[in-house]
Amino acid sequence: MIPLRCPHCDVGLKVDERKLPAGIRSFKCPACRKEVSVSLLEKQADSSDTVLVRRTKRKGTGSLTVTANEDTAGQVLFLKEGKNVIGRKSVTSQATLSIVTEDLSMSREHIIIEVTKDEKGGYKHYLSDNKSRNRTLYKENYLDEREVVVLDDNDKILIGHTILRFHG
Q1: Same domain, 73 and 107
Q2: CATH of the domain at 100
Q3: Does the pTM of the predicted model rise above 0.70?
Q4: 32: which of 4, 26, 145, 157 is 20 to 30 A away, CA to CA?
Q5: β pairing state of 97-99 and 82-88
Q6: How does pLDDT run across 22-39, given as a tens digit for each residue?
């Protein structure tokens, strides 16, 4: 069995490599029903045992996985180049990416992630708190007013009581 994590809903999966059909490129997550890309890296010549399976990294401007909790369903938000304002969905929210949640400790426009192209053609992701009422926790520290941090793949961000996982 190979342990995997769905990149969309962050649910833990165990895949029986003996049951994978030859040439498989993806499968549907049993929890969120979204496609999970995989690559068979090595296969034993005399056996059906797979040595390693890994998800193929999608190139793009990055995404946030919203971890499900009692107030919030699991969600994936895809970032766009430029300024992304992220917060709780409401009729009055000005957020460009809204999280459907009952978490009232999350502001309507809680954080900003600015996505810019770097000199190598990749993307840089800059996180800042957007004057939220309950602040933003990043790497176990609250962001100060006007503080901007560069995000790395798999960084954890806490807004309100909701955990976001950055993928870039």
Answers
A1: yes
A2: 2.60.200.20
A3: no
A4: 157
A5: parallel
A6: 667 777 777 777 777 766
